[in-house]
What does this fold into?
Amino acid sequence: MRAVVYHDRERVAIEDVAEPACGQDQVKIAVAHNGICGTDLHEYFAGPIFIPTEPHVLTGQRLPMVLGHEFAGTVTEVGADVRAVAPGDRVAVEPVYRCGSCPPCRSGHYNICQHIGFHGLMAAGGMSEFTVVPEYMVHPLPEGVSLELGALVEPMSVAYHAARLGEVGAGDTAVVFGAGPIGIGTWFALRGLGVADVLVFEPAAERRAALAQLGATVLDPTEVDPGAYVREHTAGRGAHAVYDAAGVRASVESGLDCLAARRNLVAVAIYEQPFEVTLLKLVMNESGVRGSLCYTSDDYRAVLELMARGHYDTSGWVTHIGLDSVVSDGFEALHAGRRMKVLVDP
It folds into this structure.
C-alpha cells in the first residue's frame, strides 16, 4: 500500500509499504481522510521532536514512521477479540497509546501518561491506505456525521479539552489567540459550551476572513491592542479565560493582558522554542497559565455529539489533497499560510 513516510527533517516520501495485519484486539481501517496537524508541521520543519529515534516504550516503533494521527475511515477487518465495531462501520480514531500504570493513568488522566504515544507519531499512522489500531481507539461515527468531519474529531477534541479547562460558561467572555485549526476548534467548542462572547485575535487576513464567515468576532492584533480592547469590551473586568492557540511570545504576553483577575490562560499550542514571559503579570493579577494536552474519550464523545447536531462547519477552511502532493500542497502550503486545514485523501 502507499503511505507518507517520515525519515527526518524535511525528508518525507510517498512509499510502497507492507499492508498492516490485524491482530486479535485490533481494528483495520481503510483510511478516507487524514488531517495534517500542526505537530506534523513541527516534525517536518524542525523534527524529529516527538517521533522516536529509538523504539518507543509502548509501541516498539521508531523512525522511519508512517505519519498521520487525525483520521477517519471504514472498518475492513476486526480481530477475534473485538466487539465494539464490525467491518463496514465508519469510525474516527482517538490515537493515544497509554501505559495504564503510571500515576496520571491510574488517576484517569491517560492523556498525560508518562509514557504517552500517538498513532502516527510513535506507531505507523493513518496517512496511508490502511492502518490498524487497538479496539479502544475507535469511535463509531453517528449517522449523519461525514467521514470528512470524522477526520476532524481529533483536532476538534484537542480544542474541546482546552475549552473545558478554561472553566467558562454562559455569560462569560473568552479570548482566543490564533485562528488556525485549533483556534477555530476552540471557538466552536466554546460556543458549544454556551459561551456566546468569544473574541478571536489573528494577524493573517485570510484566516480572519474564514473565521468571520463562520460568524466569529475576529480582530487583528496588529491593528488593535488586545488587552486594551478586551478591558473596554468587558467594562474593565477582563476575560474569564484566554486560550493561546498561536504558540508565540506575543500571543502569550497579550493574552495575560486580557485576563480577568484570578483566571487562567490555557496554553494549547506547541512551543518549538522557549521564550521569556512577564511573570509579574501573573503575580499582580493572581492569574495563571494552564497547559492542555490532547483529549480523553469524554472529549471525543462530546465533539461527536456536537457534530451530530450540525454544530461544526468546514466551509472556507478545509482543503483536500492526494498523497502525491502532501509536501507541496500540504506541509509547504500550510507553513507558508496558503492553506488552513489540509486533509490528505489516500
About this structure: DSSP finds eleven helices and 18 strands in the chain.
